[in-house]
UniProtKB/TrEMBL annotation:
Catalyzed reactions: carbamoyl phosphate + L-ornithine = L-citrulline + phosphate + H(+)
Organism of derivation: Pseudidiomarina indica
Family from the record: Belongs to the aspartate/ornithine carbamoyltransferase superfamily. OTCase family.
Keywords of this entry: Transferase
Ranges of residues in domain Aspartate/ornithine carbamoyltransferase carbamoyl-P binding: 3-139
SUPFAM superfamilies on file: Aspartate/ornithine carbamoyltransferase
Gene Ontology molecular function, alphabetical: amino acid binding; ornithine carbamoyltransferase activity
Broad enzyme group: transferase
Record protein name field: Ornithine carbamoyltransferase
EC number: 2.1.3.3
Signal peptide: none
Amino acid sequence: MNDLIDMWTLQPQQTTELLQLAQTIKQRPAAWATFLQGKSIALLFEKPSLRTRASFAAGIHRLGGHSIYLDAQNLIGEREPASDVGANLALWHDAIVARVFSQQTITDLAAASDKPVINALSDTCHPCQALADLLTLQEQVGALDQIHFTYIGDGNNVCQALMAGAAQTGMHMQVVTPLGYAPDAAMLAQAQQLAQQSGGSITLVHDLDQLQSTDVIYTDTWVSMGQERDQGAVMQDFAPYQVNRALMQQLNANYFMHCLPAYRGREVTAEVIDSPQSLVLFQAENRLHAQNAVLVKLFEGAHA
Ligand code: CP
Ligand code: NVA
């Protein structure tokens, strides 16, 4: 593994190994306390963040490394191209964690940098979130290939990362979005093909009446960072897709998940997200452990 550009570049076996490693590091953190000693990692953010920024900073510290936060709002593209940013950062840092508007920026950073680049969210993918979510499902729900999982809402970055992760691990995932908010068709096809090999399944519907019973319901914000959506249209298009007590009961769902930040009263009711069925804090906690597994995998060769 040279980079974590998106979820799609991971082989199913690599995803499984990352989840195992995350468990191991979580259980025995002391064994990894000097793994990144002497290493410096740049955290480059074009968009706001709480969980990703704070969990990378804390996680790198726990591995004995050092991180710096670079506010890249209005930096990449406007001040200098991503290729120059990547080439320069690689002179002083051992890896780059980047949250960007366009997936192309991740690709450009990785091409210009001879150090690992980790996607900390782009318009098309949020691999660190998906890995933490798979870890949470394993811990809190059970074997991934036995799980029936429903993603409801906007079919963008988080949904697409989860589709890849679900397909790699044999999960049964149904995606339900309003018309016009479906995940990328090529990614859906890729996930469906991959799921055939892993024994899982990925389906897409727009009609809530076509949903099957599920173990878990997952949702995300209706307006992602950087999107300029008409509020009225958003409410009209997404309102029927709110996760509330009635939907949880209709689908026999035992668990609720959300990447956060969440907007109570919009994509989910407070009654659901603040209930014992909600796994959101387990997900947030596992961001650190999943990301530390990624960092260990990326630098493993350096320790061989
Ligand atoms: N879930 C997530 O990525 O949260 P932040 O935007 O706060 O980093
Ligand atoms: N889809 C959301 C995820 C936030 C973690 C966004 O891109 O803003």
